[in-house]
Design a protein that fits this description.
The protein is an all-alpha fold. Helices cover 59% and strands 0% of the residues.
C-alpha cells in the first residue's frame, strides 16, 4: 500500500509533457526578453577622454620621438567625440594637414591619412574607432543634443589640462 501512495504522490508532482514544454517555452521567452532589454539599455554616458598618441603608429621619428604626436592627440579628441561620416573625414584631413606641416613629407602624411581612413571606422570594435568615447554601435551619426552637451562639458575639462603625448 505504501508503494501505491508513493506512485500517486509522484504522479501529482510530475507534469505532463505538454506542461513541461509550456514551462520551457516560458523560461526561454523570459530569458530572451531579459537579453533584449539589456541590449536596449545602453549607457549614453560619454567615457573619459583617453589617448595613446598615434595608435599603432610611431608618435615621431628618431630625432624627435613626439614630432607629430600632438596631431594625433587632436585627432583622438575628434575620434573620441564621434559624429557623422563628414566629421570623421574632416578629422582625418586635419590629421593629414597637421602631419604634413610637421614633417613636410606628403607621402608620409598621405600614408597616415589612408591608415586612419582604413582602420578608424566605427564598425570596428577597437579602442581607436570613430566615436570611441561612446558605447560600441553608435555608428556614424550626428550626436544628439544630450551627447553634444556631454562633449562640450568634457572638452572644457580636457582643454584646461595640458595634453601631452603618452610616450
Amino acid at each position: 500500500m505504501d508503494i501505491m501512495k508513493q506512485n500517486e504522490s509522484l504522479t501529482k508532482k510530475n507534469q505532463t509533457p505538454e506542461q513541461a514544454d509550456n514551462k520551457m517555452k516560458l523560461k526561454f521567452t523570459l530569458i530572451l526578453f531579459i537579453v533584449l532589454l539589456s541590449a536596449c539599455s545602453k549607457s549614453t554616458a560619454l567615457k573619459p577622454f583617453k589617448t595613446d598618441g598615434c595608435s599603432l603608429f610611431p608618435d615621431g621619428d628618431l630625432t624627435d620621438r613626439n614630432r607629430w604626436c600632438d596631431c594625433c592627440v587632436r585627432h583622438d579628441i575628434a575620434y573620441w567625440q564621434g559624429g557623422t561620416e563628414q566629421q570623421r573625414l574632416a578629422a582625418d584631413k586635419a590629421l593629414k594637414a597637421c602631419v604634413l606641416k610637421k614633417t613636410g613629407n606628403e607621402t608620409f602624411a598621405e600614408m597616415m591619412y589612408k591608415g586612419v581612413r582604413a582602420g578608424g571606422s566605427s564598425v570596428f570594435p577597437n579602442w581607436y574607432r570613430w566615436g570611441y568615447g561612446w558605447d560600441y554601435g553608435e555608428g556614424d551619426k550626428a550626436l544628439t543634443q544630450e551627447q553634444q552637451q556631454q562633449v562640450s562639458e568634457a572638452l572644457k575639462a580636457i582643454k584646461s589640462k595640458t595634453l601631452t603625448c603618452p610616450g
